[in-house]
Amino acid sequence: MMVGDGMLKKYGFIRVGACSSAVRVGDIDFNYKSIVKGIKEAYDKGVEIICFPELSLTSYTLGDMFLQDTIISESKTALIKIVEETKELDIVSIIGLPIYACNQLFNCACVIEKGKILGIVPKTYIPNYSEFYEKRWFSSACNAYEKEIDIGENKVPFGNDLLFKCSNYDFMFGIEICEDLWSLFPPSSILAYNGASIIFNLSASNEIVGKYEYRKQLVSSQSSRTITGYVYASASSSESTTDLVFSGHSMICENGKILNETKRFSFDSELIYNDIDIFKLKALRYKEKSYMDYEGCINNFREIYFDLYKKKNDLVRKYDKYPFVNDNYEEIMEIQSTGLEKRLKHIGCSKVVLGVSGGLDSTLAFLVCLKAFKKLGLDSKGIIGVTMPGFATSDRTLHNSLELMRLGNVTSKTIDIKEACLVHFKDIGHDCSKQDVTYENVQARERTQILMDLANKENGIVVGTGDLSESALGWCTYNGDHMSMYNVNASIPKTLVKHLVKYYADNNDEVKEVLYGILDTPISPELLPSDNKQIVQLSEDKIGPYILHDFFIYHFLRYGAKFSKIYYLAVKTFDEYSKEEIMKWLKVFIKRFFSQQFKRSAMPDGPKVGTISMSPRGDLRMSSDTSYEIFLKELEENSDE
Predict the structure, then answer these.
(1) Domains in the chain and their CATH numbers?
(2) For the chain, what is the mean pLDDT?
């Protein structure tokens, strides 16, 4: 795998940083040197755009000294020094300082790149309440009537209508300053509407009890609402503590997720950085069509061009091996059980029938049925669990299924399918010694027929057990385990199934032992027999590890990522699999996903639980005849093996 040398750009990553620089109040010489040091450190880390706190060049807590001409003039002199001393570095820097313009003083963000000031953005909303009294010194950007100001010998764009557009890479960033984010109409919303995919916020947010969590929530929420990367750089604890304490709480966020944040209450400069996925943000924007529906938004922004330079960066961002798994287990099961409750109430039904195989999927569906019946006040005996041993059923899974039903106090039935399958083999003229796909699918369809007929007899409905991962791969028998009357697991991926069963086991001692026995059982359809009645047919040997497939599913369907990028991320994430193994199973995924859509087109009803669903009536409107060749070609041509 090639790394660095443009690889991050190829896959849509921009490395951004936030530096809570150490300051001495009013010591501009010290502060400018601290900023230069921070820029150089960020450059050494491969950061492409670095942001510093609000008024970082002077310090935020300077008070009435902002009105002294010495401070204003020395700030401008120090700014020119920063520009000169960093002109050889391939990095864009955003610095906070006071600027005199339009007969007023403004709290500003100055953007510099390789010896040039690109533009200056003044703060729009000026706080003047509680501990803040900025209007004593600063004016709002709304009062700025000049579009350009003189800095040294150059005319520099000035105003809150600036968007910074990369000339050699397709993305833009915008700037807001502290209070701007806390306002009713944050400038970042308008900046994002007009194309900014990263927002930089220069802030001086003091600490009071409870503000830390609220600040995180605010940054995360705005990043999610605007579908942006959000870089928040806040003043450090080295600010004056005359009346307030600052903590240097800086954050880097992407679409609601905090990627990195500083430790608070440090007197030293702190740098954080991470890789923002621009391609992912773009994909989310054109997927969520309401994003651009507001017609009254300002769109007369001036675009300021800059360059990004090829850096030999390797990916520092860490990706979760289990992207579907979170801690909301109780909520997930509530959604599943509520879906089933509504269906039972609507059709006036008090019985359900499901196959209980002793495997993970049927176990989760069984637990969801128990929860639904308890919430509805129904007798658990109305849950009819059926175990249907066949030619390959192991003693282990049979025992686990029977024990689970006993402990759940449900109606338990054991119906052996071997004789019925042998009759069917004879009817269709199949040699039962030929253990092929017909041999396997006859068993799967026989089981489903039993469940359907039993549901008719008992005036109940068949609850499906198949999971999202199996749907994505088509790892189910059409009109066999593929079919039910309501599938509670329809949008639960295999990796999440296991975590949900474990959660239930750890919180219910009476079934803990049997559930852990099920958790320790290999994943198998149990359709091919062995001489010693052991489980020999392992699903993951045939189709690949579910942990990889769930990773592929998540990044493909959630963010529309190219398969070459998914391969790159998987190689970076999974040390336990070789590049060759990941490539092999990714190709399996591509071929199976596209060739098996016809099964998903006929999926039964089932509740959407997470961000991804395969329902043909919901998230996935896809032709059953879509070719996979273009996707396979893209992977093979761009995976850089």
Answers:
(1) 13-306 (3.60.110.10), 329-638 (3.40.50.620)
(2) 93
